Amino acid sequence: IIIDGGFVSIEICLSDQIGIVAVIRLDFLSVTIQTRIQTVRLSHRSPEIRQLPRLSKMSVPLPESDSEDELPPAWEERATNDGFVYYVNHHDKSTQWTHPRTGKMKRVSGDLPLGWTKHVEESTGKIIFLDEKTQRKSYTDPRLAFAVEESAQVGELRQRFDSGTSALQVLHGRDLSGKVALITGCNAGIGFETARSLALHGCEIIFACRNETASKEAIERITKEKSTAGQKCSFVKLDLASLESTRECAAQVKSRWKHLDMLILNAGVFALPYSTTEDGFETTFQVSHLSHFLLTTLLSELLDHTSRIVVVSSESHRFSMLTKLSESDLSPPPNKYWSMVAYNNAKLFNVLFAAELSRRWKTRGISVFSLHPGNMVSSQIARNWWFYRVLFALVRPFTKSLQQAASTTIYCATAHELNGLTGLYFNNCYVCEPSGTSKSKRMQQSLWELSEQLVERVAK
User: Fold this and answer.
1) Which of 77, 112, 265, 300 could disulfide-pair with 116, CB 3.0 to 4.6 Å?
2) Rounded to an integer, what distance in angstroms lies between the CA atom of residue 165 and that of residue 403?
3) What is the pLDDT of residue 154?
4) pTM of the shown model
5) What is the mean pLDDT of the chain?
6) What are phi and psi of 262, to 5 degrees?
7) How far is residue 135's CA from residue 117's CA, in Å, rounded to a whole number?
């Protein structure tokens, strides 16, 4: 039995052929026990216990483990206040930034999980963590349960979630208190589940919507589920069919908030009969792209290197036939309009806009992502034609729920492993390649320049 650095190591030999090395790591302060069992094959001629490998000696090769992330005996994992994980070797009283087995570095959220607080114990001067709900105390930082490897490159991303993951599962254990998210079109459907999920984890939500009554009803639903969450939700009028309303919304937001952590461009329309807005543009184009373009540029001063912009697009962007852009391509006349084509084009504009925005704002450190939420998700987007309502109802058993459809948006807005990345397109909470057209630098720049011209023309 070896006692060293607050840990107890016990080595047991059960027979002359099989040695079972059981290492019990006991932190006497937090009363937390971690166990690891290793089977060691011994020689027939060497049955004595002294010939077992001594795990307490760091000079011998580290034994294999079922989990490469498992720490060797007498090692401890800790985290700094700003989220960097480091490792303590209690044998030689040293520390290091890299994992002793894998050589990789990790980070955790700068925020404690929901309901946890950090204190200094008066009797010992040591840091202690308290779960306010259960009153359970621990000397182990609870953030370490959600530590992720630092990923500065896209190729290092690992898929943690899939099509069956819900938004609340993505946010499990996260505390978003102090964060502010503006979400367009979030009083129903996928947008509501996005807002609800963030609010239930402490995030302040700005409902940027056209319908005030529906928005307040949505906020009331959140309040009934969790009163403190509903109290952090606010409504700001935003009619995306009006550039003037978009400017008024931006002005109101800037007068009430000093910073946005998340700007989620969720609103969109589908299968509209031909119509034009008060600004003279085809409605699908303006609601789905142009007003979002204006809103984003107007809110630029509230965004910094900690902010993320998430643009909800669709796999339908792959079906757009556009290869060049002109004003008539963006906002077609009645004789060249078909609702499905307009929708596909609008989704392409979303991906093009996100890509160009990420390039222009990359030096500011702002992350910009676009995504596909799911196929034919049952929401109010199909309300404009009875045929689509019937079709969406028929396929509902085979498609994502609204909670599942919101998961990729939530992932793009909050995942720690996306820090430092930008300009990516996601499907099922994982990065994937968008269409070839959407990756065209010429198309991206052309859309930006045309959008600027159209907005400036209306402003005059």
Assistant:
1) 112
2) 8
3) 72
4) 0.69
5) 83
6) -140, 130
7) 10
Place of tokens 């000079």: 59
- The rounded distance, in Å, linking the Cα atoms of 179 and 422 is 20
Q: Taking the CA atoms of 357, 358, 364 and 367 in sequence, report the sign of the dihedral they define.
A: positive
Q: Is 425 a catalytic residue?
A: no
Q: Could you tell me the fold of the domain covering 160-459?
A: Rossmann fold (3.40.50)
- Does residue 63 have a pLDDT over 50? no
For the cut 60, the answer to whether the pLDDT of residue 396 exceeds it is no
Burial string for 358-367 (b: 16+ CB within 10 Å, else e) reads bbebeeeebb
Across the range 121-134, mean pLDDT stands at 86
pLDDT score of 85: 86
Amino acid 171: pLDDT: 97
pLDDT of residue 46: 40
Burial class (CB in 10 A: 0-12, 13-18, 19+), 45: exposed
Residue ranges, CATH 3.40.50.720, the chain: 160-459
Q: Dump pLDDT digits (tens) for 344-373.
A: 999 999 999 999 999 999 888 899 999 999
- Please enumerate, as own/partner, the contacts of 72-81 that have beta carbons within 8 Å and a separation of 24 or more: 72/100, 72/101, 73/7, 73/9, 73/23, 73/25, 73/36, 74/4, 74/5, 74/7, 74/9, 75/100, 77/144, 77/147, 78/141, 78/144, 79/108, 79/141, 79/143, 79/144, 79/147, 81/110
Q: Which of 87, 274, 343, 411 is the catalytic position? A: 343
Tens digit of each residue's pLDDT (9 = 90 or more) over 19-48: 334 444 444 333 333 444 444 343 444 433
The pLDDT of residue 106 is 81
Mean pLDDT of 6-18: 43
pLDDT at 61 over 90: no
> Would you call 89 exposed, middle or buried from its count of C-beta atoms within 10 A (0-12, 13-18, 19+)?
middle
